[in-house]
Amino acid sequence: MAGVQIFAENREQTRELLNIGGRLAAGLETTLSAYIYNDAAGADEYIAWGADEVLLLPPLAADQPLDSYLPVLEAEAKSNDPDLILVAATFRGREIAARLAMYLHTGMCSDCIAVDIAKGSKSLQMERLTYGGAAIQQVAFSTRPALATIPLRLFEPAARQEGRSGKIRELPAPPPSPLQVLERKKKTAAGKDIAQAGIVVCAGRGIDKKEDLALVAQLAAALEGEVGCTRPVSEEQHWLPEELCIGLSGVSVKPGLYIGLGVSGQVQHLTGIRDAKVICAINKDEKAPLFAAADFGIVGDLYQVVPQLIAEVKRVKS
Fold this sequence. Notes:
It is a single chain. This protein folds into 2 domains: 4-170, 3-Layer(aba) Sandwich (Rossmann fold); 194-317, Rossmann fold, CATH 3.40.50. 29% of the residues lie in helices and 23% in strands. It has 9 helices and 15 strands. The chain has helices spanning 11-28, 43-48, 70-80, 91-104, 213-223, 231-236, 267-272, 290-293, 302-317, and strands spanning 4-7, 32-37, 53-57, 84-88, 108-109, 112-117, 124-130, 135-140, 146-150, 167-170, 199-203, 226-229, 257-261, 278-283, 296-299. It has a 7-stranded parallel sheet, sandwiched between helices. The chain is elongated. The relative contact order is 0.11.
């Protein structure tokens, strides 16, 4: 047997994987299966989004961690011999994918930015960023199944296809895990989810002091956007929460407009804004790397430029 299998933690993530999974399944001339849990009532929706088969994982007991599903995922993969398994690259997803690869004695490509079928064959080729985002590594698989984790929001959600039909299959309950969840504490986000923002105004090292972040916030408010920052602002100065840090080890954003204020534009940060539609750089250092990636650039003191921008935005909107 063969096929493409996908595993994610919620509907939004699953829809993104159904998009890329459906394209790859069509190219491999095989089927697409989606694991779901705690969402049995939505199985028909997954089929409408492109799944040929929905694999229902039984609910876990409250004291069981998500990786309790690993024995079921392993048994399903060994029984059906899929060509490819895609896992959403969440914190828990990465751990599950790595352990599943070990159980299946296969390789895993982490945080893939591209998965394609080689021309003239049905072998899979993948790409991932390496050297802090400075280079793209190409990965080919010599083992089966191929296994990869896919960053969130890399692909658009799969479109609904009316009239599709598919199978729904219930999987057996996993054996009790030797690990137990003693307590769950919901993490309270100190900032907004900038990954979903249409406009992002980013504060960089060029901001002199914490109080000057008010200027960044004023521009973001005038544009009806959100504030983000570079790693020095969140991790070194601790002026903004880590949820607002954009870059390789932070959040990846894909706004319609990104404005970098005093952002030098190191490669680790550029990795996080590579999907922005329009990039604007404001920096007094004309050699700042961000200018090379920008669609528009202003060489000047942000403390002089930003107030003029705010005034102009307000004038246009009034």
